[in-house]
């Protein structure tokens, strides 16, 4: 079982994350680094996928070779920043099914409101990996995971680049069964809901918007 929180301390991940945090890193470099880190984080979040064997023929003989068991994975991106993690992971797991969840924050209640949700079929039989680079308040992440559960998903993991303690606590309270994999656990959220020290607005930095 993955722990509730796994911080991937691998030197390559930490080095690339430092480059991403720097305020003068260009949009092109930020995007490239995010894609590279997503591969390394995907390696960690898929570490305990159930395995089986299938009989294959090598050029020398038949063998029972290991293969991932069960239905194809479902990757679910929380729009829009989740898409920055999605592309790299899909290179590693090209057969995965992909879903999207769009949420915005109601300015009055500050609660997440769903504006888009398209998930793969048979979620009850798939392992789902929800991706969003920034686990800040945890409100939209918790809401996205609830949508997956409503669609029948039973095995869900959450993958992010940076997490704030507030977001981790929120997820633990709402979804204690969902392990979180991240590259770093930062100090806190500021008054505007940004992760500190963080890296700023992940969507703006990857898409070059303001
Ligand atoms: N979303 C971001 O893009 N950055 C933060 O620091 C928090 C939420």
Quick structural gist:
This protein is of the alpha/beta class. The protein has helices at 11-21, 27-45, 82-92, 139-150, 165-174, 202-207, and strands at 5-7, 51-57, 62-68, 74-78, 97-105, 112-118, 127-131, 134-135, 155-159, 162-163, 180-182, 184-185, 188-189, 195-196.
Which residue ranges are poorly predicted, with pLDDT under 50 across at least 5 consecutive positions? Answer: none
How many domains make up the 3D coordinates? Answer: 1
The 3D shape can be described as globular
| Number of extended strands | 14
Beginning-to-end CA distance, first to last residue:
40 Å
Look at the structure and give the mean pLDDT.
95
Radius of gyration: 18 Å
Helix and strand element order: EHHEEEHEEEEHEEHEEEEH
Q: Mind describing the biggest β-sheet?
A: 7 strands, mixed
In spatial order, strands of the major sheet run 1-11-9-7-4-5-6
Helix fraction by DSSP (H/I, runs of at least 4): 25-40%
Instruction: Say what the CATH topology is.
Output: Rossmann fold
Strand-pairing-aware structural class: alpha/beta
Pathway: Pyrimidine metabolism; UMP biosynthesis via salvage pathway; UMP from uracil: step 1/1
Protein name: Uracil phosphoribosyltransferase
Domain Phosphoribosyltransferase: 7-209
GO molecular function: GTP binding; magnesium ion binding; uracil phosphoribosyltransferase activity
Describe what you observe in this structure:
The chain has 210 residues and is of the alpha/beta class. It has a single domain (5-48, 71-200), classed as Rossmann fold (3-Layer(aba) Sandwich), CATH 3.40.50.2020. It is built from six helices and 14 strands. It has helices at 11-21, 27-45, 82-92, 139-150, 165-174, 202-207, and strands spanning 5-7, 51-57, 62-68, 74-78, 97-105, 112-118, 127-131, 134-135, 155-159, 162-163, 180-182, 184-185, 188-189, 195-196. Strand 2 (51-57) and strand 3 (62-68) form a beta hairpin. Helix 1 packs antiparallel against helix 2 and helix 2 packs across helix 3. The longest helix has 19 residues, at 27-45. The structure holds uracil. Uracil binds at residues 81, 134, 136, 193-195, 198, 201-203. Catalyzes the conversion of uracil and 5-phospho-alpha-D-ribose 1-diphosphate (PRPP) to UMP and diphosphate.
